[in-house]
User: Fold DUF7995 domain-containing protein from Haloarcula sebkhae.
Amino acid sequence: MRDEDLARHAFHQVGAYEGPSVSMYDQHAQGIRHRGQLDRILEENQDSQALWIVPADVHF
Assistant:
């Protein structure tokens, strides 16, 4: 397969990027990076049904 528009190269570059591993995010799409931050979010939403767990799997 020819990489005429460099799409394969672009996806390889994205997949090769190694940054911090963040697997949980808050309602503002900011990474939850430590337990204290998670505890605060859970306490703020203790009586709310507003928390969601959304599984995602990304392959490059």
